[in-house]
Amino acid sequence: MTTDKDIWNEFKNEEANALSFIYSQNIDFLFFYGKRFTSDEEFILDIIQDLFYDLIKYRKSVSQTDNIRLYLLKSFRRKLLRGIEIKHKLTKLDREYNLVPEIVFSIEEEMITDEEQSIRVKFIRRGLKELNAKQREVIYYKFTLGYDYDQICEIMSINYDSARQLVSRSINSLKQFMSKNKFFLLFIYRRLTTE
Predict the structure, then answer these.
(1) Distant-in-sequence, close-in-space partners of 147: CB < 8 Å, separation ≥ 6
(2) CA of residue 85 relative to chain centroid, distance
(3) Which residues contact 151 (CB under 8 A, 6 or more apart)?
(4) What is the pTM of this model?
(5) CATH tag for 4-91 (out of 1.10.1740, 3.40.1630, 1.25.40, 1.10.1660)
(6) Where do the structural domains in the chain lie, given as residue ranges?
(7) What does the pLDDT look like over 111-153, one tens digit per residue?
(8) What is the CA radius of gyration of the chain?
(9) Phi and psi dihedrals of 8, rounded to 5?
(10) Which of 170, 171, 169, 148 lies closest to 160 in space, CA to CA?
């Protein structure tokens, strides 16, 4: 089995298949991640193209990585935010671009057929809306993508303690929302009445 480190080294050594493999494995992920910041698909594709152009141009000097997707996500996020800031200054379009992503969790994207599941999902969605954009972003990285704190620090350009505090505060906010709205009592009641 080839590791990310091996593939990255092949890419740095100009093996053509490595670049196409990296691109094909990550293009959709980067595109849909970009859609969390803006609906301008052409702009997102331009940023992805710039990212891969820079990778090719500087391939000999890019740093080593054992997690290609994390490396690309960090670089893409930085380029995307910089591009949005520049475009925002030039066009003054406040609503089209967000400097903080509108994180949509995969649980929201799935079709819900079971009524109980639907009620829980709606409630969780309301709880997530109570979080600020940065809290939703860190929850997305931690629990949807499964990144550890070091990886979150790399992506968000924050220190380790800040990442831990942000996750902790986000979880506490969700717990408070759920207990304030008696979510667990509703869940237990529905469980007892269906068994």
Answers:
(1) 70, 141, 155
(2) 19
(3) 67, 70, 141
(4) 0.65
(5) 1.10.1740
(6) 4-91, 106-194
(7) 434 455 566 667 677 777 888 888 888 888 888 888 899 999 9
(8) 20
(9) -65, -40
(10) 148
